[in-house]
Amino acid sequence: MRIPRTFFLLAVFLAAFTTADDDSGATTTENATEFIRTSCEATQYPEMCYQSLSGYATTVQQDPARLAGAAVSVSLSSAAFMSIYLANLTRQTDYGADPRCGSALRDCFSLFRDAVSQIRGSLKQMQQLTGDGGEELRFQMSNVQTWMSAALTNEDTCTDGFDQVRAGPVKMDVCDRTVKVKEVTSNALALVNSYVAKVTVP
User: What are the helix (H) ranges across 54-99?
Assistant: First the structure.
């Protein structure tokens, strides 16, 4: 895994959108925070959305592209940490009484590794957006939508793989953690879709 590169990309993205203008003051920050809260209402998990993104208010301001990009970067961080967790877990030899747990864990790690790659690709594309709603921007955002959707599917498939595994602490922990990651990714995809709806033309 190239996890350090993942967090480097996240930092670069946020830095690219950070302005040096300090004249906006508290009012602008409050407006940005309210913009994030309102935008998050369009997601499936609005409270988690707001909690995970409100800290980026000064970077996001009231820009839907910055908000979508920040959401993708948070999703990348969440999936990457999950991938690290699964990598460590798969090194363990005792999966309990059900040998299918080990197989499900390995499959889940592979799926999250793919999800991290897909979300990383989405973040790179968000860094390179061009155009003002024309064909090129539609193509770029279509890539982001496709990759984020694929990442969410991979995360869903991880928990599906535990359906035939006996109940136990490993299954419960992996599934609980995966659900939280899925919610973050779902929110990011929703904000990406909202941005696409605002800027692209038929």
Answer: 57-60, 64-90
Letter string b/e over residues 4-18, b meaning 16 or more CB atoms within 10 A of that residue's CB = eebeebbeebbeebe
Could you tell me which of 111, 116, 108, 77 has the C-alpha nearest to residue 90? 108
Burial of 155 (0-12, 13-18, 19+ CB in 10 A): buried
The contacts of residue 43 (CB under 8 Å, 6+ apart) are 49, 186, 187, 190, 191
- Span 101-135, pLDDT tens digits: 889 999 999 999 999 999 999 999 999 887 666 78
Q: Considering the entire predicted model, what is its pTM?
A: 0.84
Q: Cα torsion at 183, 186, 27, 23 (round to 10°)?
A: 110
Neighbours of 125 (CB within 10 A): 18
